[in-house]
Amino acid sequence: MDAHTERAVADVSAFVEAVTETRKYLAKVSDPDRIDAAESELLGRKSLLVLARRQLGNLPSDIRKQAGRRVNEARDRLQQAVDEARSRVKAELRVQSYETDRLDLTERLISQRQRRGSLHLITQARDHLEDIFVGMGFTVAEGPEVESAWYNYEALNIPEWHPARGSFDTLFVDLGEPEEVMLRSHNSPVQIRTMEACEPPIYIVAPGRAFRRDTADATHLPTFNQIEGLVVDHDITMADLAGTVDEFVKAFFGREVDCRLRPSHFPFTEPSAEFDVSRPDGSWLELGGCGMVHPDVLRNCEVDPEVWQGFAFGFGIDRLVAIRYQLEDIRELANSDVRFLRQFQHPVREVLL
Amino acid sequence: MKVLLSWLREFVPDIGDDHAMLGDVLSGLGLNVEEVSLVGVIPDGVVLGRVVALRPHPNADKMQLVDVEDGSGGDVLQVCCGAFNMAVGDLIPLARVGTVMPNGMQVRRAQLRGQVSNGMCCSEAELGLGSDADGIMILDRKIIGEAELGMSLEQALGVKPDVLWDLEVNPNRPDAMCVMGVARDLAAKFDLAFEPPVWSPEATAESAADVASVKISDPTLCGRFSVRLLRNVTVGESPSWLADRLTALGMRPINNIVDISNYVMLESGQPSHAFDLACIPDGRLQIRRAAAGERLVTLDGAERVLAEGDGVITDSRDRILSIAGVMGGASTEISSSTTDVLLEMAWWDPPSISRTVKRLNLSSEAATRFRRGTDWGENVDRCFNRFAQLAAESGVTLAAGTVEAWGDLPDRTPVRVRPSRINGLLGTELEASDMSKHLRSIGFGVSENEGGTVTGDGNALDYKGSGDLRVAIPTWRWDVTTETDISEEVARLHGYENIGRTVVVSSKAGGLSPYQKDRRLVRDVLAGAGCDEIQPMPFVSVEMFKLLRQHGDAISVTNPVDAEEPFLRTSLLLGHLKAVAYNQRHFNGDVRFFEIGHVYLPPLEGQLLPDEREYLAVTLAGEEAPAAVAVLDLLVEAFDLCAAELSVSSLNCELQQIQAIRSDQSNGDDATVRQRLGGLHPTRCAEVVLNDRVVGVVGEADPAVLEACGVEGRMAWLELDLIQVLDPKRTRSLYRPVSKYPPSDVDLAFVVPDTVNAAQVERALLEAASFLLTDLQLFDVYRGAGIEERSRSLTYRLRFQALDHTLTDAEVAEARQACIDGVARRTGGKLRA
Fold first, then answer.
1. Which ipTM was obtained for this model?
2. Across the interface, which of B371, B427, B603 has its CB nearest the CB of A237?
3. What would the mean pLDDT of B250-275 be, rounded to a whole number?
4. Does A139 contact B586 at a Cβ distance shorter than 8 Å?
5. N or C: which end of chain A has fewer CB within 10 A?
């Protein structure tokens, strides 16, 4: 073996040995720059690999092939070690970065806090009621809060002398003749307006605000919210009224709640009834009024009572809310106190009696 | 209307005494039990005792020691007692140790502050005998007679347990305003016979017609006016049984004549009035309507000024003696010297009585019954007899004959009733005979339409078919006139609980209107933005309206709940100011509110009712105007209020800043603007314009108004006419293709005088730019070094983009230049160097 050959064999061996050493080194290194330097030293443009490859040509052909293989295998091993070292170091750095990234998520600054607002209790209950009746094929009708005597009384079969008029404690408004215009004392005017505007069949509920001359106290407010229903169709009976009210009661209060009708009197319905719902203790809670639409009311709206029949019902939404939340002072509903309002972020889904 | 079980049983003895069951039956008949109380039930162990000594309690000031003799012959019992109204020798109710009191408490032998107490001295209230809870009940020998010490109190007082119901009687039940009417209903429900008792007092030989005469001048006022003559009257106290019943039913005993009048009214429903004959020497009574301004001093001592149409009873000289059906006059009131009485019973036209009651704001037990319609039939004669029979006990005699006159009485032509119609209304399948049975049970007469006779006794006819019925309505049911009225009676007696239950099915789908759906979305958007919904009252005070300079527009309430707040709101602002102030007072300054509610603007030309609108308001306490604009932008996005044909977002909903205060204060337009923006910060507010219509305002509340309302800090404000904003006819965006080519963003900074609004610059940019402009955003405002005084730099980012190609530099440059020129031309804004 001549000196050239020896030198070549030595260079090849030096490369292979350097690879072995460097792999050990790379297994421990944690600085990405050092990986780059090691890679460059062994595999770069002026590296041992380049020298070893150049020397392969100086080898006799009988060993050249084998030497070439040794060089290539060594290079592959090193490349693999470099890759492994890189991904290991990258992972180590990632872990370090997580540490420096650490945030205490329980430090909740008020300035970063996003509050969701709340819907008013009356709105929540009203939406719930509307949805139940919409599910039964009703639409939702609305009307003005300031009404004429015709819509608030006369069309509803409450003539000027009727004792029921006094019981409404109406708030009158300085428009028209004395006592001709008023804040509506119930939502029934919407029934009249609907019958005037639409041909039967009619299936509506009318939620909204009504008014009475009550001084505000724990159980009264001058403004309150009602929902009334009106159905006018062929062959509507009192059994339909009883069944529909019962179905509403079960949908709203729960399937186990029962409902009963008791005879009562309203000028705009006949027969008239109050409806009560059962409480778990076996007692009955008076909820609202209902009845078959009085023929005179139908006639006042130019609906022929010999062709069409209907029923109507109504009750207070405030009262439902007061029952649901065991509200001791309903003035809270009008007080706009955020400590009260913010208790009711989640809408009413079930009603407790 | 109160009734006693014992009184009811005088007319229907067989209804038993299960008060819970009877209460349910009464409610089921439409006589809803509002309250029930057991009266006269004295617990076992309460006996008659006598106070033999009273000594101070050594360890307590609020108690004394009472030695009570209980008749047992043993030692006196020492009782600790908190009342001091007794004297030695008084007879008192003593509850022995072991007695269970009506409230459930058991009396025990106890040590009270170191002293033994061997029982309890009782008050009326503790025994359930009355309402007096102030002291121990002192028993009167006159009442307990010879009762011995130790006798049970129940025996000593001779009381019997009874049930007192307070019934809610609806206006359509004139018949149930008396014990007998309630008894009639119960008898019907229990299938028991009901016959009103017959009272037949003997009359003297004297004829009433020789002494008295009556005349009805207005037959529409009075249907029947009847008078009988009573002699030998001695006005004095009523017997205790009668006084007790009146007291139990809530009436105060006055004297025997008045008490009997009340007793008969409570029992049979017919009010009566006793005139002292000495005050009406010629015995002539006349009925007419009053002329406006006539006066009368009524029994209660008040002078009443009558209005035209009020019914009155006068004497032959036309002096008013009484307000018909409401209250008697003082001048003919019976007194201790009265010996002869003209006793009057009448039927008055219910609407007339109602009008008088309302006009005079004066009611009475009599008026309550007359305005519902009393019985003008034989009940009147029965009541005269009952009166005379009760009065006879005090020696009163009844002259022969009734002096009476008749006016218009309600039409009692039998009503045609179609059983099929009743079943069709009630959802029942009753036989005609069932209906007849029910109706007859409460005194209606029923016969077949053809050939039958109208009978009231309920026995005459048997029904097999389903032909029409002819129903005769009894005189005690003024309220019943139609087939529908009769259907209600059938339903009531059939029992509402026996009516089936079916659920209606609409042939059309239900649902919310687009507006109602959008309104819910508005609420959700605002709740998402951290606003709490409020629903304050709509009433506003005079001062507040003045503060907002809106009082000229306000509608006032004639009879406001609070005289301080007579106006209806024309804006939601005041309710929010109050709400913010309230919360700030309670240390919650940082509130965000919204409200959707009605405002009441003056009626439009030719309209009776106000121009009522549904407004949306948003309040951001502690925030400046831009925060409210940001909320507006949120709504603009949520409702896609930008029109489809514009390729730039949000600009169809634009703001017009209003300078509410101008140098020329006398300017007419200025006043209008100020009124429109009442309460808003003069230089920090804008009108919201949608499709060229003003639909609301946005900005801040006027600091002067905030101060007056006690609100600290600033308050951002947004108020929109919600129906106009959510107009269902508004155009909805169609699909717009998305460009696949890159955009070119161009930033342009303009120096603009403060007098020029940014909105004007934006409009200039929009008008100048070609269709290539797809987005426009203001992203910087700069005042200061390098910018002239009273000007600022507005920097806009414009995005140009084409659908079909990448824009060339030349195209972008051309569009950019057009924008610069447009702003310069329209606003005088110069490109910032």
1. 0.86
2. B427
3. 95
4. no
5. N
H or E segment to which residue A18 belongs: helix A3-28
Burial of residue B40, with CB atoms counted within 10 A of its CB: 0-12 exposed, 13-18 middle, 19 or more buried: buried
Q: Is A123 on the interface with B (CB under 8 A)?
A: yes
Q: Convert the pLDDT of each residue in B684-726 to its tens digit.
A: 888 887 777 788 888 899 998 999 999 999 999 999 999 988 8
Dihedral in degrees, nearest 10, Cα atoms B554, B557, B558, B562: -120
pTM of the model: 0.84
The answer to whether residues B435 and B469 touch, using CB atoms and an 8 Å cutoff, is yes
Closest chain B residue by Cα to residue A206: B512
CB contact under 8 A, A338 and B526: no
Contact B532 A272 (CB under 8 A): no
Q: Which helix (H) or strand (E) element contains residue B34? A: strand B32-39
User: Which token pair is B550?
Assistant: 């809106």
3-state helix vs strand vs coil in chain A, percent to 5: 45, 20, 35
Return d(Cα A155, Cα A300) in angstroms, integer.
Answer: 6
The reply to whether residue B530 touches residue A115, judged by beta carbons under 8 angstroms, is: yes
A222 min Cα distance to partner chain B (Å): 7
Using the Cβ of B36 and the Cβ atoms of chain A, whether some distance falls under 8 Å is answered with no
Residue with tokens 């092939």: A65
Distance from CA of B759 to the nearest CA of A (A): 30
Rg (CA), chain B: 41
Which residue in chain A is spatially nearest to B494 when comparing CA positions? A263
Do A313 and A288 touch, CB atoms closer than 8 A? yes
Residue A149: both structure tokens together: 């005597």
Q: Give kind and range of the element (H or E) at residue B613.
A: strand B611-621
The sign of the torsion formed by the CA atoms of A285, A288, A294, A298 equals negative
Cβ-defined contact of A238 to B594 (cutoff 8 Å):
no
Q: What is the pairing mode between strands A202-211 and A139-140?
A: parallel
Residues of B whose CB is below 8 A from A334: 535-537
Got the DSSP string for B228-264? EEEES----PPPHHHHHHHHHTT-----HHHHHHHHH
**A299–chain B Cβ distance below 8 A for any pair:** no
Beta strands in B180-221 (DSSP E): 203-207, 213-216
The reply to whether A130 touches chain B by the CB within 8 Å rule is yes
CB contact under 8 A, A214 and B608: no
Tell me how crowded residue A44 is: count the other CB atoms within 10 A of its CB: 14
Tokens of B822: 């447009």
Q: pLDDT tens digits, residue range A83-142?
A: 999 999 999 999 999 999 998 888 888 787 888 899 999 999 999 999 999 999 999 999
Contact A271 B28 (CB under 8 A): no
8 A C-beta contact, residue B603 and residue B618: no
The pLDDT score that the predictor gives to residue B728 is: 60
Please measure the distance between the N-terminal and C-terminal CA atoms of chain A and give it in whole angstroms: 108
Q: Which residues pair with B168 in a beta bridge?
A: B32
Q: Which two tokens stand for residue B287?
A: 């009925």
Give the pLDDT confidence of A208-242 residue by residue, as tens digits. Answer: 999 999 889 998 899 999 999 999 999 999 999 99
Alpha helices in A44-187 (DSSP H): 48-56, 61-101, 121-135, 149-152, 163-167
Q: How far is it, in rounded angstroms, from Cα A280 to Cα A353?
A: 7
Q: What is the DSSP letter of B645?
A: T
Contacts 24+ apart (CB under 8 A), B394-398: B394/B234, B394/B236, B394/B256, B395/B232, B395/B234, B396/B230, B396/B231, B396/B232, B396/B233, B396/B234, B397/B204, B397/B230, B397/B231, B397/B232, B398/B201, B398/B202, B398/B203, B398/B204, B398/B228, B398/B229, B398/B230, B398/B231
Q: What are the phi and psi torsion angles at B775 (to 5°)?
A: -155, 150
**Distance (Å) from the alpha carbon of B378 to chain A's nearest alpha carbon:** 26
Q: What is the DSSP letter of B563?
A: T
Residue B645: pLDDT band with limits 50, 70, 90: very low
